[in-house]
Specification:
nine-stranded antiparallel beta sheet, 5 helices, Proliferating Cell Nuclear Antigen, elongated, about 260 residues
């Protein structure tokens, strides 16, 4: 049994952070909140999402009785959460209509439906069969030598400018400077920020190349966060972390690097 | 002879209520104001439009002298109005440019032209030959068992949400609740409003199915009205009535129902 | 050596006045400012652009030493300016991102690159080879019998309305009235302004026909100017002059007339 009430803007912000990477996915509901981990169809980008139950105005989750359906193998542990398959893009479209009201959610696990109520408008979405969705990816073990914390708007503005130049972007650190660089046939864009212009910087000398398409999508997903944390390495995956729901939720993107052709 | 001055916004609001159904039509001009009745090319939707002469800042109409052109058959009665064919979409496009100024209209019946003046900008539109336009439809005799008066914005918002779900919408009354329902392959949307959430409701139990395309178009035509009146029956046409020009004009849409396939 | 700082809005306004006619062109840099003259690919429209050095917050230009590269033929006179080839559309796209900040420009003539800095964002654009660009056009010797000064917004609004009617527009003077006229198959638009509704008018009786496409483009390029000066003749080119950069820059468009087919 799952029933909850949440501010429409909080829910929208959360779903937008997910749809930046995947259209649909398996959402885990437990007593302490929601969780999702999903990888994009091309296996290049991953999103890990967590939202605490106290981000909701109301949140009630009761795990199914063990043994009600299956047998003794099911430990109490494994029964303490429910997994549902959701078309997040569809849900987002409907939230866009509902305005700034509170949203009520109610799960009908038996019928595999999620009821959504915004004021006098009720929207019922059929859940997707979790077995038809991609398996939850394993998070690779990574160690990032460098961490940069930057204002989201500075990052997003640079990404928008880079989109006009080319298809790739370099993120790197050179001493006490964090930089982002995009190069086209005729032109080149570079953002350079010294340590004191950033919220945090681990000095170092390294950089990696990434596909701009993915970072552009991520850049939309993070638009409500004030700051983002970039975890970087040399020719290494990029991890972007930020908070949603006024700190009661966490999003982490992971993006594989591109091999530099030169 | 027809000459008039009218607020550009009032004229725009009126024409938008017409272009929701038809691009062009026959407008009747008489001493007491303007009238139009037209049916869409597919014969599914009808618009009836009336605008009183006192919605205008100035309004002068003098019927042609009987016998000036034709013979004795023309009774004074039938001469007391003039019918002109207008491309409303074209007129609306030009009004969009003119800003919020007053619009002067002047009919040259002999040359079959309508002069439109907005400040120092004059726009002359050739009239359409009324005989080339579809005949004015007969309004069917209808009796509606149920009447609902609802805030326009609530209705329009639901229509916008329904557009994301499917192609049809059910409008109905269930006891003291008015509802609108759209169903897609995977999801379902329902607005339910109790009597006290509406301006008026005749209790009952009935519903009809309509094509969403038409209601979406109508929903644009009513955007300036605060409330709309829905007249409903069981598998019956839908009538939507609302006021324009601060109550000095009336619009009525009529829409044929769709047969439910189940 | 060329280095300058300029308000981003001033630079944007200037470049927009150029891109109304050409995408790329040869910009001349001298001690007293910038100059450009270019003709559109179809040879129908020309733009002459001048921006004084005092429109910049900082402006430093030092001409190359004569003889440093070439021989004695180069007079000091001809060395006192530098010509660079710029893709203005690309530059404008990047300025759109930078926001309202100050822009720093720095020319690397040797590498044929222009460095642009907006806050911490640096954008390097490769210059175009001036010899690959069209020759600077000669300005024909023209005498305009009639001059009209009009509020830009009145002119632009009429152009937007005319776009809905047809492909051409007549600009003319009839006694003490300036008029603009566009005619479609079914309709006709006319702006008529008496001398007292204009800032200036030379009375006369003449008109010319122009392609609306070009005037529409010019109309975008002049959007920041309060007034424009129209220089007119009978079946004669149109010259439109206006100021940019708060009077510290001047733009002049020249447009060939169309032959009236009737």
């Amino acid at each position: 049994m799952f029933e909850a009430k949440v501010d429409a803007n909080v829910l929208r912000e959360c779903i937008e952070s997910i749809t930046a990477i995947v259209d649909e996915g398996k959402l885990k509901i437990a007593e302490d909140g929601l969780k999702l981990r999903a990888v994009d169809p091309a296996n290049v980008a991953m999103v890990s999402f967590e939202l605490q139950s106290d981000a909701f105005d109301e949140f009630r989750f009761v795990a199914k009785e063990p043994g009600a359906e299956s047998e003794a193998e099911a430990t109490t542990e494994s029964r303490a959460e429910t997994e549902i398959g959701i078309d997040f893009v569809k849900l987002l479209g409907i939230l866009g209509i509902g305005g700034r009201e509170e949203v009520e959610l109610e799960l009908d696990e038996h019928a595999q439906k999620l009821f959504t109520r915004m004021g006098s408008l009720a929207y019922t979405i059929s859940l997707l069969d979790p077995s038809s969705l991609r398996k939850e990816p394993k998070v690779p073990e990574l160690e990032f030598p460098v961490q940069v914390i930057i204002e989201t708007e500075e990052f997003r503005r640079t990404i928008r400018a880079a989109e006009k130049i080319g298809d790739h972007i370099v993120l790197g650190v050179d001493g006490e400077v964090f930089y982002m660089e995009a190069e086209g046939e005729m032109d080149k864009l570079r953002l350079g920020l010294r340590k004191e212009q950033l919220i945090h910087l681990t000095p170092g000398t390294l950089h990696s190349l990434y596909s701009l398409d993915y970072i552009s999508a991520m850049s939309k997903g993070m638009s409500h966060a004030e700051n983002i944390t970039l975890n970087l390495g040399k020719d290494y995956p990029l991890q972007i972390e930020f908070e949603v729901a006024e700190g009661k939720g966490k999003v982490s993107y992971l993006l594989a690097p591109r091999i530099e052709s030169e």
